[in-house]
Write a structure and sequence with these properties.
elongated, alpha/beta, 30% helix, Rossmann fold, five-stranded mixed β-sheet
Length: 189
């Protein structure tokens, strides 16, 4: 019994002194659209919260193994907010740049008072570090009566580097391209 009273505190002390854990890194996505598509487009736009597959709607960054169905969930590389919140904010900011005369807001209510309501459902969001990031999504544009005006599929892949920062930048580029396609569809209405 005396031995246990001595050994256990020594083990705990050793773990505290020598057992260090890796610090987590936190990433965000950014709006990177810089070119205006139409300075004359003046509608009001409501962007609903982006819907994501459950496996990526988590704080940990998710990647896929090359040539495999295996998914990696990184405990030490995390999003600063839920990916759906980041994606919604990025699309909203991108649309504000692409259509600077439009009133673009994240939907905080039911979209009342807006000319167009935009919904995005991301069905695939995959990345292989050192290779590519892929986004497959459906976007829907509805009028104030909630009538679907257009529903389109978007699919694109971009090359990315080997780091998680490269992954975050790749997702930002994909969201910029999706935003550009949405803006073009809005102008055509």
């Amino acid at each position: 019994m005396k031995l246990i009273k001595i050994v256990i505190p020594c083990l705990l002390l050793g773990a505290c002194m020598f057992g260090t854990s890796k610090n987590a890194k936190f990433y965000t996505q950014s709006a990177i659209s810089t070119n205006t598509i139409s300075a004359e487009y003046t509608a009001s736009l409501s962007v609903n919260r982006v819907q994501l597959p459950k496996y990526v709607e988590r704080p940990q960054m998710v990647t896929q193994q090359k040539d495999s169905l295996q998914i990696n969930i990184s405990e030490y590389n995390r999003w600063v907010e839920l990916p759906s919140v980041l994606a919604t904010r990025v699309i909203t900011k991108n649309l504000s740049v692409l259509l600077p005369a439009a009133q673009v807001k994240e939907n905080q209510s039911k979209g009342e008072g807006f000319n167009w309501i935009i919904s995005v459902e991301i069905v695939e969001l995959n990345a292989v570090l050192g290779e590519k990031a892929e986004l497959v999504a459906w976007y829907t544009i509805k009028n104030t009566s909630k009538k679907v005006i257009t529903q389109q599929k978007f699919s694109h892949t971009v090359p990315i580097g080997k780091t998680y920062e490269d992954l975050a930048n790749g997702y930002s580029r994909l969201l910029a391209e999706l935003s550009q396609e949405i803006a073009t569809s809005l102008i055509e209405q």
